[in-house]
Write a structure and sequence with these properties.
six-stranded mixed β-sheet; alpha/beta; five-stranded mixed β-sheet; Udp-n-acetylmuramoylalanyl-d-glutamate--2,6- Diaminopimelate Ligase, Chain: A, domain 1; single chain; about 260 residues; elongated
Length: about 260
Amino acid sequence: MLKVKDIVSVMEEVAPLSCVYTDEYDNVGLLVGDEDDAVSKIICCLDVTNEVIDEAITLKADMIISHHPIIFAPIRSVSSCTITGRKIVKAIKNGISVYSAHTNLDFSDGGINDAVCRALSLTHVKNLLTYGDNKGFGRVGILAASLSGEQFRQKVASAFNDEHVLLAESGNLCKKVVVVNGGGGGNEDIINQALACGADTVVTGDVKHHVAVYAKDAKITLIEPQHYTMEYFYIAELVKVLSEKTKQFNIQIIQSRSESNPRK
């Protein structure tokens, strides 16, 4: 029977720790649990919510694999007096280990950024920037045919099943596209990177108002799906990848059915 540490090894093949983004704080790996515990059922999710932990308990899952870390900001204690502490305590009491792969899953080859590019039918995809040992931050690719901002917004909305995709229109056609999944819109850096590589469009989430203004002034079309939808779609693919890598073992890997978009 597989143990937690065996699943950790598989995850680190899929999303190597060397791909953790080194320019920002992150927290990845086995964050809760005992690496020597046996594993027969795994639930994959975007966020480790109370509902996901309850689902794991109901389904008798031994392990949760998430994209967003259950522990992100440093904590001084683990107790039922805090929101995060209650989740950790509940997982431990029920023998559930939690592994989180964050920026290493974003930027690894075949990870979420690449999945976004496939979903948007981008070709000639390259790394936007490099960090660490020649790892790729973000991607840049080409649309087969130029689209208006609204046409491309609709394509993004369809790809991520997102009715709330925002568009900051530049007036130019969309052809060369920068992609940074999740929360890449926190500052102007991504717009400057798009300008530097000759892109005309950026697709990313969590865009701040001043970044949208900056993009408009820079004549860059900015398309903003929700952080949740831009990453949630990948979880089904992660289940397939892990199932294929462990198919010789008696283990069940499923996607959570209890988590939902917190902003709907």
